[in-house]
C-alpha cells in the first residue's frame, strides 16, 4: 500500500508539472507513462520523468541515456566561433574539416556529417541496397531493426531478414549464413546485399563485439559478395574498451555510422564513413531525406571537439558503470542479478529477482525524493533510469556523471533497497 501511495504521489507530481495529461486511475497513468507490465522491445514507451531539474537541494543523477549530455563552455565557444559556409554546396570549411578528421580516425576514404544516427543508418541501407528487392540481414535486437521505425522498409523499400542477437551482441555465424539468399535472379527471392552489425550493442547492454567475430562476419560476407555496415553509434566506447584504434575494428566493415551526440557530448550529429563512391551516393540520399544542412559548421565545430577531445574520458564512464554494478551485488545479491563481466562499457543492465519489486517500481523509487530520504541521507537524490525488457533496468553513464554522482546513485539505491526490505518485514 505504501508503494502505491508513493508512486501515485510521484505521478501526480508529473501531472502537476504538465508532463502527462490528467487521467483517472493509476493504471491509466501507468499506460500513459508506458509502464505496462508487458513492456518489451515492441511496446517500450518510456516513462516521462519530470527530467533533470527539481528543487535546488535535490541532486539529480540522470542515467537515462548518454544522449542527455550537454555541450560545455569550450564546445559552445567553438560553435560560436566556427567558420561556416553552405554545406549543401560543399562550402562549409568546418564540416569539411570534421569529415576529413572522421575519415582519418575511422580509416575510411571519406565521411559525411548527417543529422542523426537513424538517418545515417537509413542512408547506409539505401546506398548498399540500391535495387528494389534487395535485402539486409540485421540482428533481431538491433537498434536498426527495433528503434528506427522500420525505415528500411518504410522509406528505402528494402526487405529485412533477422538473425538472433546473442547476449554478447554477436550472431551465430551458421544462422547468419543460413539467412543468405542464393536464388537470384530467380524471381521468387529477394537478393541479399548487406549485413549490419552493432557495436557496442545497445539493447544487450553496451556489449563490445569481439574482433574475431567481425573477422568471421567479414570472411562470410566476402564469400557471398555482401557488404558489411556497422551501426557504431558507440564505436568509440568499443575502441576504448578494447584498447585499439577504431580503424582496427573498422578494417572488417565497409561502412560505419558513429554518433557524436551520445557519450562524445556533441549536441547534434552523426558521422557516416566508407569508400568515396559510397559517400558520394550517401550525399544524394541525405539530401533526399531532408538532411542537407546549410551553415552546419556551427554543429560540426562541436563534433570536431567530440572526436578530438572527448574520447579519452569514455574510460571514466566505463569505470563508473562497473562501480555501480559492483555496488548492486555488494548491496543485495539476492535482489540484483548482474553479470559483472558483461559490464564492458557505459551501459549497465541488471535484473531484479524479487517479484515484489518490479523494474518499474524500482525506477519509480529511485526517481522520487521523500522527507525520510532527506532525513536519512542528508539530501534528496533523484536518480533517473529506465525499466527495460525482461525484468531488467538500464542505466547509462556519460560525461554528465562524475564518480561522486555515481556514489550518490549508490547511496540512493542502498536507501531504496533498505526501505523495500523493511516493508517486506512489516508485511509479514
Ligand atoms: C542512438 C543510436 C542510434 C541512432 O540514434 P539517433 O537518436 O537517431 O541519433 C543508432 N544506433 C544505436 C545503436 C544507437 O544507440
Automatic annotation (TrEMBL):
Residues carrying N6-(pyridoxal phosphate)lysine: 262
Protein name: Aromatic amino acid beta-eliminating lyase/threonine aldolase domain-containing protein
Pfam families documented for this protein: Beta_elim_lyase
Gene field: tha1
Cofactor: pyridoxal 5'-phosphate
Entry superkingdom: Eukaryota
CC annotations in GO: cytosol
Protein's GO biological process: glycine biosynthetic process; L-threonine catabolic process
Amino acid at each position: 500500500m505504501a508503494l502505491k501511495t508513493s508512486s501515485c504521489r510521484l505521478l501526480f507530481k508529473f501531472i502537476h508539472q504538465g508532463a502527462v495529461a490528467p487521467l483517472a486511475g493509476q493504471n491509466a497513468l501507468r499506460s500513459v507513462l508506458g509502464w505496462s507490465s508487458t513492456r518489451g522491445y515492441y511496446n517500450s514507451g518510456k516513462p516521462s520523468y519530470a527530467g533533470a531539474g527539481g528543487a535546488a537541494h535535490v541532486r539529480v543523477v540522470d542515467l537515462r541515456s548518454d544522449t542527455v549530455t550537454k555541450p560545455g563552455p569550450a564546445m559552445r565557444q567553438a560553435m560560436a566561433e566556427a567558420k561556416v559556409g553552405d554545406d549543401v554546396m560543399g562550402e562549409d570549411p568546418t564540416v569539411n574539416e570534421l569529415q576529413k578528421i572522421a575519415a582519418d580516425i575511422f580509416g575510411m576514404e571519406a565521411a559525411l556529417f548527417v543529422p542523426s544516427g537513424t538517418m545515417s543508418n537509413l542512408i547506409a541501407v539505401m546506398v548498399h541496397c540500391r535495387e528494389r528487392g534487395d535485402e539486409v540481414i540485421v540482428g533481431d535486437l538491433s537498434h536498426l531493426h527495433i528503434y528506427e521505425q522500420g525505415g528500411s522498409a518504410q522509406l528505402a523499400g528494402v526487405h529485412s531478414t533477422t538473425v538472433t542477437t546473442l547476449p554478447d551482441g554477436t550472431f551465430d555465424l551458421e544462422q547468419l549464413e543460413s539467412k543468405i539468399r542464393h536464388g537470384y535472379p530467380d524471381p521468387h527471392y529477394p537478393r541479399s546485399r548487406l549485413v549490419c552489425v552493432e557495436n557496442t550493442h545497445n539493447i544487450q547492454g553496451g556489449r563490445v563485439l569481439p574482433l574475431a567475430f567481425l573477422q568471421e562476419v567479414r570472411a562470410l560476407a566476402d564469400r557471398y559478395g555482401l557488404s558489411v555496415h556497422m551501426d557504431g553509434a558507440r564505436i568509440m566506447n568499443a575502441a576504448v574498451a578494447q584498447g585499439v584504434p577504431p580503424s582496427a575494428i573498422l578494417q572488417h566493415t565497409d561502412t560505419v555510422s558513429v554518433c557524436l551526440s551520445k557519450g562524445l557530448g556533441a549536441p547534434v550529429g552523426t558521422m557516416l564513413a566508407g569508400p568515396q563512391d559510397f559517400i558520394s551516393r550517401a550525399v544524394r540520399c541525405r539530401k533526399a531525406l531532408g538532411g542537407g544542412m546549410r551553415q552546419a559548421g556551427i554543429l560540426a565545430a562541436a563534433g570536431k571537439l567530440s572526436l578530438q577531445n572527448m574520447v579519452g574520458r569514455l574510460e571514466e564512464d566505463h569505470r563508473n558503470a562497473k562501480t555501480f554494478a559492483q555496488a548492486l551485488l555488494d548491496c543485495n545479491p539476492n535482489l540484483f542479478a548482474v553479470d559483472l563481466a558483461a559490464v564492458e562499457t557505459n551501459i549497465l543492465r541488471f535484473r531484479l529477482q524479487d517479484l515484489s519489486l518490479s523494474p518499474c517500481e524500482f525506477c519509480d523509487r529511485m526517481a522520487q525524493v521523500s522527507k525520510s530520504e532527506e532525513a536519512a541521507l542528508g539530501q534528496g537524490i533523484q536518480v533517473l533510469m529506465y525499466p527495460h525488457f525482461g525484468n531488467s533496468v538500464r542505466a547509462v553513464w556519460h560525461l554528465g556523471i562524475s564518480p561522486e554522482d555515481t556514489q550518490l546513485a549508490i547511496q540512493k539505491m542502498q536507501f531504496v533497497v533498505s526501505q523495500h526490505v523493511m516493508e517486506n518485514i512489516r508485511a509479514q
